Amino acid sequence: MKKFLKRILLIFLIVFLLGNLLGYLSLKIHSEGNFYKPSFAVNAHKPANYDYVVVGASTGLTTINTGLIDSLAHTKGLNLSMDDTNISSHYLMLQHFLAQGNTVSKCILAPAVGSYNDANKESSTNDYRFAMFAESSYVTTYFNTIEEKSLNSRLIASASYMPMAVESYYNAELFFTSLYVLTDFKKRNRFDQNGNYTYPPKRNVQRFQKKPFELKFSNPYLKKLEALCLEHNIELLYFVSPIANKHVTMEPHSHLLDYSNFIKDPIYFYDAIHVNSEGRKLVSQQLADTLFSNNSVKN
Description:
CATH architecture: 3-Layer(aba) Sandwich
Largest sheet: 5 strands, parallel
Organism: Rasiella rasia
Order of helices and strands: HHEHHEHEHHHHEHEEEH
Strand content: 5-15%
Protein name: SGNH/GDSL hydrolase family protein
Number of helices: 11
Number of strands: 7
């Protein structure tokens, strides 16, 4: 019986050590690649002084073309938006960007419009993409101080000392993708060299009925973002992306970029909340002119 228990214990230890070793190697590979945005922010560009950076969700990712803005306004920008994230994640992304030694003059916050009103303090669906940087104090603090701790946030917070746990839970997103990254560390997950992504135009244009939506700017992480930007002398701009199925109303707010009703023709939308490549072009051209009108913008 004792021999049996010893063998079981030995097998458990071997599996535990091997699992954590594989988990560590997987996260290490991701930390040195460009596949996810947090790694891209570290490895794709050397620390520099940027004119602006975009932090947001899929709306920021697909609505603002930093490459086009830079070509028009002669600026240096970067899109660090990630799909399926909320304002708490955008706060963490800006911290992560600054921690690499970057400086920036303007931060364009481009979340899903509903996130501005969201009082939820849980981590976002795709926050696991920060797991490879869990040893950084700001990442650990973020996941340990979220008031409504979920299993996801606990696993990500533990990645620095027990990577097997987060790798087991997110095996498809972290472990198997690390094997893909291993073949080419420059591979990116659906975004270009400037961090942008776009949707193609559709042949069948869908028309949407607009419903009223009151935007309140009540998300608690807005205050944290404001404080972080104030600390680093960054102008924080609140971007409201074009939206086809809502008529957005709001009280006057300083530093607001309201594009909610900028595009009226449904031909420029991919779906109700995302513009297509042609819609992105219209928005980006206007943004270049609005933000950098003194930089010789030419349409």
